[in-house]
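Posting here for the record, re: FE2/S2 (inorganic) cluster.
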Amino acid sequence: MDESALPPKSAPEVDFPIDRVEAEHVSRREFAKFLCLVSGGMAVGSGWVAIKDKLFPPFRVKGEAFVCNTSDVPLGSTHPFTVEGSNIPFILIHLNDGTFRAYEQKCTHLACAVYYSPTHNKIECPCHHGYFDASTGDVLAGPPPRPLPHLDVVIKEDKIFVREPKHPAHSV
Ligand code: FES
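Prediction output follows.
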């Protein structure tokens, strides 16, 4: 490149001159090194994710875990809980139609705590205005990329239990 086509040099560049044409030139060898570094980094990252999943499998509820009594969660209200052996926050919701749902209380966008709004019958994330369907956990609006993870709710007499969902990806 012609040096005269470049903008005028600033004071520090005048005091400490560098060959700008040479400084801005990226050789094929340097570019190939850069590509190797990037693809090597991505390979190591993917390998780490695979190994981490094997070493630290995601938490699973064993059998049925007791949450509370039905009388503890009046219609339209919620009950936060965790399952023994895990500190993942869940929220039990007593929907206006009388059914119960259990969702992870972390937004699938950036993990803010979500809350149930009985007036809108939606689960809302205050951080970036994400909205989830309270009956299914599906994303209704906003940036969350996935539905809220859920647990199946089982009621025996007046006791509420949760267990791993039969259909983990969807359908509550
Ligand atoms: S963290 Fe919930 S919408 Fe961004």
